[in-house]
Amino acid sequence: MKAVNYIMFALIATGVNLLTQWPVFMLFDGWWALYAALFVGTLAGLVTKYILDKRYIFNYQATSKKDDLHKFGLYSLMGVLTTIIFWGTEMAFYYAFEFNGAQYVGGGLGLMVGYIVKYLLDRKYVFKVAK
Questions:
Q1: Are 35 and 24 in contact (CB under 8 A)?
Q2: Buried-most residue among 4, 8, 122, 130 (CB within 10 A)?
Q3: Farthest CA pair distance, the chain
């Protein structure tokens, strides 16, 4: 059941990420629009996924706001590698394929791989349970 929830939450966060990128592309043009969209989408997806993972996947309850901020910092740090995977895949599709929406296909694939890696890192380093 946890795997099903994780997949569902990854899809939700992916949707939030890509849907947050869409208005950036609609409103702005130029070489920097892709990078602005990636940043905005990544931030929105990160916050969404942290809230869902913390509560429903790892059953973690912060003891204070400081504890929650610390966990979010670790969670974000583990996301650096997965963000490189995601951004790299999205940019590769954006530049390699000449069809509208290629970046979304690459972004979706990059997020899928990234979330698998992210779960393994979070389980081991962020929400680890003392044995």
A1: no
A2: 122
A3: 52
Distance CA 129, CA 131 (A): 6
Q: Looking at this protein, which amino acid is placed at residue 30?
A: G
Residue 128: both structure tokens together: 């680890």
Looking at this protein, which amino acid is placed at residue 130?
A
For residue 118, give the nearest of 29, 65, 42, 64 by alpha carbon: 42
Under a CB-based contact definition with an 8 Å cutoff, are residues 43 and 76 in contact?
no
Per-residue pLDDT of the chain (131 residues; tens, 9 = 90+): 888 999 899 889 989 998 999 999 899 988 899 899 989 998 999 999 999 999 999 999 999 999 999 999 999 999 888 889 988 998 999 999 988 889 889 988 998 898 889 899 999 999 986 55
* Domain parsing of the chain, residue ranges: 2-126
Cβ-proximal residues to 91 (8 Å cutoff; 6+ apart), any chain: 34, 38, 103, 106
The DSSP symbol for 60 reads: -
Q: pTM above 0.90?
A: no
Please report how the helices 33-52 and 65-96 are oriented relative to each other, as an axis angle in degrees rounded to 10: 140
